């Protein structure tokens, strides 16, 4: 089948960058990204690509190249579905906040709405691709909804999970470690797989394109995220032991990472992992395991989350303890709010939980983040429903200038590893702070010797 039109439902952190890269590398394919969120689509269509809704290094240039040529952003969902041969579903699948599985299971209501809309609109055969991260066996439910119309339209469901990491999305999409495509073992299923393989083959070499059955593909995505997060919780667990014993977690990570069986990546101790994926996907995995009665499997993976929560709480407790057991009415400056550098995404960022703990202790939090707005910071805190919006707004001051945010502060907490933090004039910052001046480096990025020479009391994670 020759693919000339693709549609993607969901213009978020995955749908936007993924489709931009497909459009850039497949000029012969028309790619339309649709979303119900009009504001988001307007931002994607903003003439000035600095204003596209997602900050990712290099993305603005790709959008500028392909948009209007063969890349389109639109709110006309039905039209895009009707015209496309391949439909990617890339909508959000957050943790359920209500009902059965609340706090654990993935909320599939947006996925189901997409399936119903495709079923309603489609007049000819379609390949439907699960791009969102989904519980294993979701394709079965999607198929049953799609086939329920009885109008003779044939659907093939493929699983094609996305492995990009935010902050490096463009590079990850251009040079993926692998592309995973799961499909039916029938002849039609294999044809659908081949059609999608052909799309990726425009820029990805064949040995990196892996095809499997649907269930393996769906489960591989949850497994990959669980393994990655497990490494962080493992090194963070050791960081606490390092602090008690005089070992240095950076040295331990380097020493074990040189073992080629372990590898050096994803061994950076931190204030705790954040982001929209790790926690959500592990909770979902735990829920799935429990639903099959696999309690030991569920408990094993749940520990990754328990450790991560402990690491965030430990960081805020340590700030309070070190500041003479009270932070009431003290200004604590936060450098960074995003869950990692080079993104404006704040979902599940450790900063939110650390701020929440410190506000409970009546601290005043001064935040500087190069890419995150005050509006976003306040909505993140309001989402926790710990206190009223007015109280949150009264406890948070935000700054566009890092030096001003640190002025008169009793302590600085580094919550995100933005490169610029390393290069600040730390003497200038020290001079304007309350003394003793404390730095709590939740990312182990600052130079301990330099800061201690200036006069800071410096504390890192795991040393
Ligand atoms: P997102 O919230 O940024 O984007 C999802 C978009 O879908 C939103 O703009 C929303 O308005 C839209 N949407 C929801 N229902 C819709 C409907 N019925 N019709 C049209 N639009 C609809 O989410 P995201 O971060 O892009 O994640 C999407 C999926 O990809 C999730 O399943 C996630 O787990 C997975 N994923 C995310 C990442 C990541 O780094 N963010 C990486 C890999 C996989
Ligand atoms: C993750 C997966 O890496 C990606 O493959 C998947 O598609 C989506 O989920 P993402 O959440 O965007 O990507 O970023 P990632 O680089 O994995 O970082 C997640 C969190 O872990 C961040 O808060 C980061 O700061 C933290 N982290 C990462 C550490 O604390 N230590 C590390 O060594 C690595």
UniProtKB/TrEMBL annotation:
Catalyzes the conversion of UDP-glucose into UDP-glucuronate, one of the precursors of teichuronic acid. Keywords: NAD, Oxidoreductase. One of its GO terms (biological process) is UDP-glucuronate biosynthetic process. NAD(+) binds at residues 10-15, 35, 40, 91-95, 132-133, 166, 277-280, 347. GO terms for molecular function: NAD binding; UDP-glucose 6-dehydrogenase activity. Residues 333-448 form the UDP-glucose/GDP-mannose dehydrogenase C-terminal domain. Substrate binds at residues 162-166, 221-225, 261, 268-274, 339-340, 443. Pathway: Nucleotide-sugar biosynthesis; UDP-alpha-D-glucuronate biosynthesis; UDP-alpha-D-glucuronate from UDP-alpha-D-glucose: step 1/1. The lineage of its organism: Bacteria, Pseudomonadati, Bacteroidota, Flavobacteriia, Flavobacteriales. Belongs to the UDP-glucose/GDP-mannose dehydrogenase family. It catalyses: UDP-alpha-D-glucose + 2 NAD(+) + H2O = UDP-alpha-D-glucuronate + 2 NADH + 3 H(+). It comes from Flavobacterium aquariorum. It comes from the Bacteria. The active site is at 277 (nucleophile). Pfam families: UDPG_MGDP_dh, UDPG_MGDP_dh_C, UDPG_MGDP_dh_N. The keyword ATP-binding does not apply. This is UDP-glucose 6-dehydrogenase. Its EC number is 1.1.1.22. InterPro entries: 6-PGluconate_DH-like_C_sf, NAD(P)-bd_dom_sf, UDP-Glc/GDP-Man, UDP-Glc/GDP-Man_DH_C, UDP-Glc/GDP-Man_DH_C_sf, UDP-Glc/GDP-Man_DH_dimer, UDP-Glc/GDP-Man_DH_N, UDPglc_DH_euk.
